[in-house]
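dumping this here so i dont lose it
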């Protein structure tokens, strides 16, 4: 499986010719380093929750126009997208076949935020190998402890680095991809990624410090 990061929480998974894109939000596109046309061959787009840093509606309309990708989200996301003229579906309980991927949607409460109004957040497990929690460190995700790759938020108003590390310790993945850091400058990310890599190495966990849009690795 090929894993590619496109700033913030925008992550592309590729396997057997199928392309699955997570959370193309505003922080990914705002500086022009990533463009909707970069996803012209995407087959499926999954939105974890409706916050704008996870779904840029105008960019999403262009992505669908280029690719004809199917859209997947929770009930709140689907309602919001339908109001924008975009068709989307929710996944039933249990693993579902999405093209070349098996995807399991898992309810996982969004972490506390300043306004106190939490959106419906959905985590996703892909092929039993990748856990994308959205904006959640919820205990419900401990059911997937030992998973091969954890897509880990590492920067946000709602988190601290020790909290992120505690989540990693609870999930015990073999590898970690840092996300949710699209508003940080590169010099800051380089420093913080080095700190995470050093600490996770002590736990025998591989850390993938993907900084440039489109940087990737093979899982």
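and the seq i came up w/
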């Amino acid at each position: 499986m090929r894993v590619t990061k496109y700033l913030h929480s925008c992550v592309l998974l590729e396997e057997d010719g199928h392309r699955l894109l997570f959370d193309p939000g505003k922080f990914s596109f705002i500086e022009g380093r990533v463009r909707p046309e970069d996803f012209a061959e995407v087959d499926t787009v999954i939105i974890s929750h409706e916050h704008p840093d996870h779904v840029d509606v105008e960019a999403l309309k262009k992505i669908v126009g280029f690719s004809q990708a199917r859209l997947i989200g929770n009930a709140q996301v689907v309602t919001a997208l339908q109001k924008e003229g975009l068709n989307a579906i929710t996944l039933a309980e249990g693993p579902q076949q999405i093209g070349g991927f098996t995807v399991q949607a898992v309810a996982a409460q969004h972490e506390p935020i300043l306004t106190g109004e939490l959106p419906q957040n959905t985590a996703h497990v892909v092929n039993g190998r990748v856990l994308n929690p959205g904006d959640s460190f919820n205990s419900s995700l401990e059911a997937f402890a030992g998973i091969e790759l954890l897509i880990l938020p590492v920067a946000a108003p709602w988190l601290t680095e020790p909290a992120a590390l505690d989540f990693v310790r609870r999930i015990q993945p073999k590898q970690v991809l840092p996300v949710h850091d699209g508003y940080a400058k590169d010099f800051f990310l380089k420093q913080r990624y080095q700190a995470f890599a050093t600490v996770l190495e002590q736990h025998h966990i591989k850390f993938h410090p993907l900084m440039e849009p489109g940087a990737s690795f093979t899982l």
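The first strand starts at residue 2 and ends at 5.
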